[in-house]
Amino acid sequence: VIMMGQPEHSVVTTCAYCGVGCGFKADMKGEEVVRMVPWKDGKANRGHSCVKGRFAWGYATHKDRVLKPMIRKKITDPWQEVSWDEAINYAAGEIKRIQEQYGRDAVGGITSSRCTNEETYLVQKLVRAAFGTNNVDTCARVCHSPTGYGLKTTLGESAGTQTFDSVMHSDVIIVMGANPSAAHPVFASRMKQRLREGAKLIVIDPRQIELVSSAHIKADYHLPVRPGTNTALLTSMAHVIATENLIDEQFVAERCEEKAFREWREFVSLPENSPEAMESVTGVPAADLRGAARLYATQGNGAIYYGLGVTEHSQGSTTVMAIANLAMATGNVGREGVGVNPLRGQNNVQGSCDMGSFPHELPGYRHISDVATRTEFEQAWGVTLQPEPGLRIPNMFDAALDGSFKALYCQGEDIVQSDPNTQHVIAAMSAMECVIVQDIFLNETAKYAHVFLPGSSFLEKDGTFTNAERRISRVRKVMEPKAGMGDWEATCALSNALGYPMNYKHPSEIMDEIARLTPTFKGVSFKKIDELGSIQWPCNDEAPEGTPTMHVNEFVRGKGKFVITKYVPSDERSTRKFPLLLTTGRILSQYNVGAQTRRTENVVWHNEDVLEIHPQDAEDRGVSTGDWVAIQSRAGETVLRADVTDRVQPGVIYTTFHFPESGANVVTTDSSDWATNCPEYKVTAVQVKRVTQP
Ligand code: SF4
Question: Where is each 4Fe-4S Mo/W bis-MGD-type domain found (predicted)?
Fold first, then answer.
């Protein structure tokens, strides 16, 4: 149901769902949104939108919104509504008590990729300057942290290389471990437009996503890679390119480190990395893989777009580096139509990483151990910063269970539902003495909280989001914070109560501070974004209006660095006890853990998660579509309904995780990426059995 009526005024803002970052005009009647109209001047969407941004904003005024701060001494006590002052003072008192009793590093914070850059910056500043620890992390830990590591190592910057418009200059497009039609629909439309014009398409995915075969699009190659073997597949693609003399020798000689390239070439050329040798590992026919590698390397501008099906693996960072290797080897970096393009998930996950939310990096991806960087921030913030990286989210959970981590400030992130191995997360949360949750709803995580600070929706915020193409866009307030205080103001209040003053009059002042302290944001201000519509960072003296394409004449790190990407099998392999591999994904109408979309009319399209299972595996288990099935892994068991389909290959099952009842993360394990601890959501060895209705 869409509320209709005559708008009295409009406010241009940015969608709070996915990393496409569509601009919208909120048509208003007083403080009531009448409708959201895709903004025709939005550079990310050019007047287009999907069913989430266009229709699923009703959650912002949903009756489930909690608008009063609440506290309780124990998680078994009932919540008690209190004033903002009381809640903030209680939270600050608990942080101080815990630090006195257990030490400075017994506390930490988690920033939100749903919140603005300015809010995220403040949370990491609160943790580092007011708490005095580097125990700050972001939900990017569980999605694109391997992108940060992999692209920084190879190319020198932790972000995608292109604009979305760049795809209109691509001749060959690889989509790997991403389902843009469901998760980045507006960008998918632009990609399809280019495909209809004749660009070639290679899909690398265990599942038959919509792009593989739809009414107007048919992939030239679908490589149905076995979950957990991405690195093997890309290394064998590199083998073809290296051994069939398809390398762009001039690009590599001019732009890349010579020794690293030579070692990489020797490694990928080994017979054991050939498509034929790897076929039994990846499950991909060698002839298809050779054909796809030749297509990518020889048919003009080649662009790679990838998603969480690349990063959420024990070799996530290695696979990101394997993608960068392929792009460098074929000269597909540094101009329109090419590049390495992570399709970032949440509206501001790029921004939350940019803003210094990682325990080892200050804003702008500068390492905390670097003395000059630390000194700059110490002088600006008037504190002494710790030189050692702090705890990552999974380390916080482990430390909570061993008794050394006692308090957490978690802004806009439902870690109990979204992080893997739910039982482990719950045990860790239950072991903490003070959990402060700041959110718009009493989410699953709030069940383990002692302080609840009511958050504000995107309609109540002033600030900026940064999308997957590094585009910083304005978020503009269309109504006052329903709880009486915005998220950034609550963070400032907590900091002030802890004795570290934070006195900003407006989020624009926070962005001004970010710009002063972050070289890639030096030229960014609200005023300039308002003038230009949006800005792609880096934006500084060299690029005063921003940077659409990165690494044009040289890589940010100077010379591009090839990295050896040896395939290491995942611990999550099929066994007699757990013979199937579970992988997870998203659908168009719902969003992540569903906290927002489940509270909108979008449930009309999808109101439960189901398990996709191949007909052969279903027959072996006596399962038909609609039957209830139990999924068991070494972590746990959950029950949901089956959908028998050949979208998945034999031996692989698939589900979404938008509804807490289906509990996909009850079965995912704590297996994680070797470099960043990003959980291996995309591969879990499981057994499936038919059960009676739960
Ligand atoms: Fe929002 Fe993404 Fe849909 Fe655009 S494509 S309307 S940003 S959810």
Answer: 8-64
